[in-house]
Backbone:
């Protein structure tokens, strides 16, 4: 009876839709005409770009985005912390766009838009019309394409690369042509250059090809071998870099994420799966409410999936199961955040695998729900977030630009040369490199990022500065130890206060240390650090080579 009631309601809405539904219906009519999906993606990116602009009126870029720009200042085939793709993207972006908050927010949302476009490339091979929109609308209910995307880093760089690699693999498996096989290898290698976590995507490609009913045809063709060769060609320079530099990114990964005993590793694996389930909960609930009793068809629909969806199903299984196995066997943490770029597969499988299409009543409701969330986010959540971070509970990024400006001003008061190098608290150091007009070089080697190693004396002699939040005891103790080896220095503290809509926010005290280069003008007093800083553990006093 309930199913009949909703079917009748959907039929009535199709015949005589309410006035507010008509713009949505006109938009749905434009999907197969070619303009509606691009309009949806552009509108999504524009609205959430506006959200970021308002929400962070009194805040600065996330430290991850600032670090990404720092990594990409010079083209390199790798760095000691992450593969190079994120740095390349930031470097190329800033060849065109200025070093401003809005340009990096635009980079983040452009990356998200490209990711959604790539997902639609896959979806349109299995669904048409309204269902293409449903796939994207379900994904727009995830936090991956706006909140997660704003931190343009090694993880979010994969948002677009994973679906592009998957699309190429799907086409390669179906056609077995040299072109698509080479594209598969190239994009898979590009994913590895984004983050080594992408090995699970490549492993999932292998798993899907091996268990697929058409595996014999695929492996008898040239396609898998062409893909492997193309991948090695693209990865080759980075592999050479790893071999000649001691594979420092792997050492970093083991240092930060490895060494977990079996019990906690099993817990990490369980939390990984639960985290993904929680992330998918909202779009899954929306689909359940829309499909209603038709969900009973799921077993039959699953058995009747076309070969392409079967391939995507096993890729999805691999991207969930392989990280779980690795977490337990290797003994590492496995945050579910690392897997968000692969959740597009779930949306395509749910919508594409169903033997029915949602009536427009439900599609319009979904579109209106997504649009309503966006409107509330921009009109209410973003201003409140800005107010909250300015007046109630600020975080470190509320002070980045202010601290960078004040340090630069004080540097030029004692030296006639540009500030050459910056260290200290990572967020403050990355921010100074980005926001200061001098754009000093970040001088804390990534392989020693968690050791608080001391800089070389030769580095200090060329000119150097550092900043810490005054309530960060570890950073303050490190700064005190630097003064013991500095040839000359200026030590001071200052207060920065963010301001929003004419109202002062909560101030923070910043401690700074400046070592002016030999031969520069200097007129500031030097002296020891103030007493009272707690001792730091000896294991964190390793000098930087």
Residues:
């Amino acid at each position: 009876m309930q199913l009949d009631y909703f079917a009748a309601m959907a039929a009535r809405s199709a015949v005589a839709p309410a006035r507010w539904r008509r713009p949505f219906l006109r938009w749905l009519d434009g999907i197969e005409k070619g303009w509606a999906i691009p309009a949806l993606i552009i509108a999504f990116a524009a609205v959430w770009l506006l959200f970021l602009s308002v929400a962070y009126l009194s805040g600065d870029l996330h430290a991850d985005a600032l670090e990404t720009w720092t990594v990409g200042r010079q083209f390199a085939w790798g760095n000691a912390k992450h593969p190079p793709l994120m740095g390349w993207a930031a470097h190329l972006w800033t060849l065109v766009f200025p070093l401003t908050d809005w340009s990096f927010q635009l980079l983040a949302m452009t990356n998200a838009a490209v990711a959604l476009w790539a997902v639609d490339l896959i979806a349109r091979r299995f669904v048409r019309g309204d269902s293409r929109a449903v796939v994207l609308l379900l994904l727009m209910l995830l936090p991956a394409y706006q909140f997660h995307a704003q931190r343009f880093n090694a993880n979010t760089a994969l948002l677009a690369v994973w679906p592009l690699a998957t699309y190429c693999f799907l086409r390669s498996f179906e056609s077995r042509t040299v072109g698509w096989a080479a594209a598969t290898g190239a994009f898979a290698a590009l994913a590895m250059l984004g983050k080594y976590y992408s090995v699970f995507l490549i492993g999932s490609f292998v798993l899907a090809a091996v268990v697929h009913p058409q595996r014999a045809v695929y492996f008898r063709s040239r396609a898998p071998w062409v893909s492997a060769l193309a991948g090695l060609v693209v990865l080759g320079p980075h592999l050479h870099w790893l071999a000649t530099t001691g594979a420092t990114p792997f050492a970093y990964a083991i240092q930060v994420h490895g060494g977990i005993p079996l019990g906690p590793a099993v817990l990490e694996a369980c939390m990984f799966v639960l985290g993904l389930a929680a992330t998918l909960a909202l779009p899954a609930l929306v689909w359940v409410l829309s499909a209603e009793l038709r969900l009973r068809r799921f077993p039959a629909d699953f058995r009747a999936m076309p070969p392409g969806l079967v391939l995507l199903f096993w890729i999805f299984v691999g991207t969930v199961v392989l990280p779980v196995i690795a977490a337990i066997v290797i003994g590492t943490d496995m945050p579910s955040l690392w897997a968000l770029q692969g959740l597009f597969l779930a949306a395509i499988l749910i919508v594409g695998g169903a033997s029915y299409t949602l009536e427009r009543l439900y599609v319009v409701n979904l579109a209106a729900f997504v649009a309503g969330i966006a409107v509330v986010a921009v009109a209410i959540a973003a201003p409140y977030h800005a107010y909250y971070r300015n007046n109630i509970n600020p975080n470190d990024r509320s002070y980045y630009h202010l601290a960078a400006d004040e340090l630069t001003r004080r540097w030029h008061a004692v030296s006639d040369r540009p500030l050459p190098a910056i260290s200290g608290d990572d967020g403050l150091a990355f921010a100074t490199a980005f926001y200061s007009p001098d754009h000093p070089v970040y001088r804390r080697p990534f392989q020693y990022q968690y050791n608080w190693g001391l800089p070389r004396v030769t580095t200090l002699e060329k000119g150097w500065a550092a900043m810490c939040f005054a309530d960060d005891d570890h950073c303050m103790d490190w700064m005190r130890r630097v003064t013991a080896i500095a040839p000359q220095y200026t030590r001071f503290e200052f207060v920065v206060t963010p301001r929003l809509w004419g109202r002062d926010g909560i101030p923070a005290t910043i401690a700074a240390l400046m070592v002016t280069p030999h031969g520069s003008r200097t007129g500031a007093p030097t002296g020891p650090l103030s007493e009272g800083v707690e001792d730091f553990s000896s294991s964190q006093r390793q000098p930087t080579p």
Q: What stands out?
A: The two ends are 75 Å apart (CA to CA). DSSP finds 22 helices and seven strands in the chain. The mean pLDDT is 89.
